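Project standup — Tuesday

K.O.: blocked on the structure for the chain from last sprint. Re-posting the sequence here as requested.
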Amino acid sequence: MSMTPRVWTTSKKFAVLAAAVVVAGMVPLAAAPPATADEKPLGDNHARLKFYGTELGGGLFDGRTLIGKPTVIWFWSPPSLCGICLAEAPVISRVAAANPQVSFLGVAGRGAVGDMRGIVADNNLKFPNLTDANGQLWQAFYVPWPPAWAFIRPDGDGYLINDITAPMTEDVLSARVAALTAP
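H.V.: unblocked you, prediction finished:
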């Protein structure tokens, strides 16, 4: 079977492109800065926390219960969309259990509710976890993709961390949680 000139041209273009990608991958990018977490200030969280959400078990959650409390909100997705989230689940479970003076909330999005429930059960997440099927909570907190973390002080001031390069470690999360309750 012979190739037509058009197919040969397309195949040749593909081969040249593939070779260029391989060569480009071998060239070190000395000028590229190391990847860091995207940290954004979040002001006026008292207004942002005035929401109702649906818990993964079907119950209603009133975000106003978080106003005036140190709060950590973890925005996550099931592992098919966010493998880093799966690595963070046991970390947040342990840190939440060790810090009962801080409110923890999970906001799951972009996935099947059954998969979300499995992550909650498998990782013993004892704090409320909501499904954000329409993405409104993610939008309210300026979350472009998972995982993301909102850290909110009792006065309503806070910030968002969005790092897709690596899971948040237990030491880092514990330090950020401690800072929420520091005088």
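K.O.: great, moving the ticket to review. Residues 38-181 form a domain with the Glutaredoxin fold (CATH 3.40.30.10). The first helix runs from residue 5 to 26.
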